[in-house]
Write a structure and sequence with these properties.
Number of strands: 9
CATH topology: TIM Barrel
Number of domains: 1
CATH architecture: Alpha-Beta Barrel
Radius of gyration: 17 Å
Shape: globular
Distance between the termini: 23 Å
Number of helices: 7
Helix content: 25-40%
Structural class: alpha/beta
Amino acid sequence: MAAAFFITAAAPAKERCARETTGETARESPRVALTFDDGPSDYTITLLDGLRARGVKASFFLQGQCIEGREETIRQMQEDGHLIGNHTFHHVQLTKLSDEQAKQEVVSTSNAIYKITGIYTSYIRPPFGVWKRGLDYNVTMIPVLWTVDSRDWYTQNTPVIVNDVMKQVKDGDIILMHDCFKTSVESALQIVDRLKQDGYELVTVDEMIAD
């Protein structure tokens, strides 16, 4: 199995810029990847609508146990061009499981995503940021951590979340959020608006890696 590309919060942020051309002029824009864990939820469709209205793509790491009954939401994610990744089936710390249990948590979620999208995702956000290396998951899994933690699940306070993220964010960051709280969705859309006002380009995780 090919080696996984491991994006960690401890890794130094690499400067990434995208060329934007308007007429005869070009400028460089800082880039940020906005990521969402723990969905899909009842709030995800509102988030998708808001991102679509703003012309922004993000990355969603899905729990397998949350997928049933929300297939249309996932199809909308795919249609809108968002990256869809794996967040295990039961939101478990993989290193506390046997190899077989860990593999099942990952593979069952990838299979559930495949049944809806027709694509086996290669990207995984390991719960609690802890990855279990060395297992054969049938496809090479690329673990993705973060560089900015919004702590939206803890505060559940929209102004606090927005201010905390905007104080920390810089070029090349991967922002961790969740799409299972109303305040998180409200915060995410406000953050998008603020980032765009500040000249940031919002990209998916795979675009960040490819740069």
